[in-house]
Amino acid sequence: MIYPELYILRHGQTVWNAEDRMQGWLNSPLTPKGQMDAARQGEILRCIDLEGFEFWSSPSGRAVQTAGIACGPLAEAVHTDIRLREIGVGDWAGRLRADLPQGTGDDPYLEQYEMAPNGEGLAAVETRCRAFLSEVVRPTVLITHGITSRVIRSIVIGPAALENSDIHGGQGCVYHLKGGVQKLLT
């Protein structure tokens, strides 16, 4: 499938990111660094002609707060869609990662999302992201989360989108996806 041009932002650093807690569908506010991350994303976007673009955000407070800082001066409206929220981590929401079982494979950090009791799982995130993307017909700016961004970028670009990708990355930068190519804007 061919997708319209996308710019993807991950929300800025939150209090729980700084504490290394699992957030999932719960929320934690942006830290001062997180507010600076969002401001930096806004600086990047101001250098781009976004005429005709739609703006969509996860409804989670941290994403909406990031959208307000980064996109508020640029967007006539920022719409929300629950399909852009972060992966659900079930019983592990709010818990410190260090207190949870660790994965043993190539990416133990990512494995924790699959191990979370009553969690959503990556396959379910992919299903809802594909449903959202099937409705995107115009160039779009997305404000979302780390795992959701990874899944969207993998759907649009393929596995190459995640090569050399830091799971913690994305705060303070913007991913540009166009014509099957991903560029990291910093």
UniProtKB/TrEMBL annotation:
User: Origin, by domain of life?
Assistant: Bacteria
- Name of the protein this chain belongs to: Putative phosphoserine phosphatase 2
> Known InterPro entries for this protein?
His_Pase_superF_clade-1 (IPR013078), His_PPase_superfam (IPR029033), PG/BPGM_mutase_AS (IPR001345), PGM_Phosphatase (IPR050275)
Gene Ontology CC? cytoplasm
Provide the top EC class. hydrolase
The keyword Chloroplast belongs to this UniProt entry's keyword annotation:
no
Which residues does the Swiss-Prot or TrEMBL record annotate as the active site? 11 (tele-phosphohistidine intermediate), 86 (proton donor/acceptor)
Kindly state which keywords UniProt assigns to this record, in alphabetical order. Answer: Glycolysis, Hydrolase, Isomerase
* Residues the entry annotates as binding substrate: 10-17, 62
Provide an example Pfam family for this protein: His_Phos_1
Query: What's the EC number here?
Result: 3.1.3.3
Q: Name one GO molecular function term.
A: phosphatase activity
